[in-house]
Amino acid sequence: MIKTISWDRGTVVMIDQKALPHEERYVTCRKYEEVIAAINDMTIRGAPAVGIAAAMGIALGVLNSPEKQMKENFYSICDAFSRTRPTAVNLFWAIDRMKSRFEKEFASTPHIKADTVKKALTEEALYIHEKDIRANRQMGVHGKHLIEDGNTILTHCNAGALATGGYGTALGVIRAAHEEGKKIHVLVDETRPLLQGARLTAWEMKNEGIPATLIIDSMAGSFMKRGMVDLVMVGADRIAANGDVANKIGTYSLAVLARENGIPFYVVAPISTIDHHTRTGNEMPLEERSGEEVLEFHGTQIAPEGFNAHNPSFDVTPKRYITAIITEKGIITAPFGKGIKDLA
Amino acid sequence: MIKTISWDRGTVVMIDQKALPHEERYVTCRKYEEVIAAINDMTIRGAPAVGIAAAMGIALGVLNSPEKQMKENFYSICDAFSRTRPTAVNLFWAIDRMKSRFEKEFASTPHIKADTVKKALTEEALYIHEKDIRANRQMGVHGKHLIEDGNTILTHCNAGALATGGYGTALGVIRAAHEEGKKIHVLVDETRPLLQGARLTAWEMKNEGIPATLIIDSMAGSFMKRGMVDLVMVGADRIAANGDVANKIGTYSLAVLARENGIPFYVVAPISTIDHHTRTGNEMPLEERSGEEVLEFHGTQIAPEGFNAHNPSFDVTPKRYITAIITEKGIITAPFGKGIKDLA
Q1: Residue B134 sits in a domain of what CATH number?
Q2: d(CA B75, CA A179)
Q3: Does residue B222 sit at the A interface (CB-CB below 8 Å)?
Q4: Is the pLDDT at A1 greater than 90, yes or no?
Q5: Do B200 and B333 belong to one domain?
């Protein structure tokens, strides 16, 4: 089992996803600022994993906080984490959970005891982590029936163990089908600019012995047209109340191409990815990262010196292109708004 | 004016497209085998440019051939060029032209004179080159009206001066609109795996002072959906008699996404790209290059050691997604089969 992130005696340990697949290196964060830096520079990434990292980071920050400033520090630490990445809603969900727990502790005692709060927040962060892994397994249980023996599944970016507490969302369902003995093949989109497919999904597939082939993102449509893809399965960074999905840039194109070719398009995500306050995809904040990530490839400058680049990290897939959303509580199909409401 | 390829006193000189955009280096081929190697390793690429290189390479081979073996050598050299790359039909068109000229020379004299043949073949190769540049300019004349002041044009791969004798097909039309003083903006798909967009199209746009921004291939669909693309303009490697188009992998996806978003999708190509013997896109041979191009970048391995990759270089866009095909003889619209026939 891949250890994406863990709490180890008052430190947060995470696998360095920038170093994969060539090196399996672990980073130990002793201060909450180090966890923030790890989220910002993509040492850890993936919507659910970022939420867990924030929860552990907040616990870490409070652990190192003097009793007198604890309350003030807690809120400023939460604010700092909320500024790391704008799109993935699991981050805000995790911060909100930590806030609720913190406030519950305060509410229950007139005189706050530092040790009690620290213990409570550590407990909450670990609970968020465990809950995520359990949720992933449940998505596998619900979703594996959608994959038939002999199927080729196209996936984009990394919605695997590395993007979550462990096991994965889209790759969790693929893992579950594989564990059941189904003969499957995975087409892995390389996922420019940061190559999470080529580096991370390929690494997970290889480790697990799941047959897989790497392709360039722009090949996906052609493979669909040639009848070489049976279904598409991706993760999500935010799901609006109406069922629109924000996910890694390129997801929208895959959804359009899947519909054009009559191929089912599945989104796999925990219910913590659903943002009930965002009505549609049009309201979602979409992160724009540095153009350098586009102008360079793996550290090598590729475009002419001084050239401009756009670098939106996410796009929005309107619900009409989505066949079903697989969550730990069950599978949602159209009309998605109702399904999402019923789940809540 | 970019000198993609030229004939210089019995040698073929070409800009090394592998070294661009960082280095403007020229390669001199003194033997036809060097021209073949340059086509194979993509020192020169782009359907029309490859045709010109083959014509010049054949002339070069015959120039260096002893009189006695000239006929035998001529045909074996033609065969060698025809084995370089399977999809772009301009290569076969150019070889056929050289064959016709060669046979015409033989037919007109009972005793072939080596010098006459050499002169004739050199003339023919230079004529093919000049004809291509003139055709590009004409495509510009016909196509520039499709671009309005203020438009943003999305392009894929490099259909520019570097892909042709000079000036370009899709980029030729863009150049013509720019030369007319229209304020335009070009969105440049980077075009994995070999990054012809990031390296070559970006370089051409920068040299010419045409405002342009680099994007990742999988961003194109999202930019279309967000209303940031007014039209798509690409080149072609082979056009079937019915109007189906083979072009750089990723073109099909762009065409589907353009239609989904109500954006015109234009193909710009000389009539030498039309293959009247291929009825539909289903019959076209599509080159599959080494998976290493996908697994590595600039010599750096990106995927895990020993991973598999697919690497088809081209895909087929069915005619139903194409708004118009712009040739030097005019603009073809649906029904394409009739338009193509009328042109011939």
Answers
A1: 1.20.120.420
A2: 58
A3: yes
A4: no
A5: yes
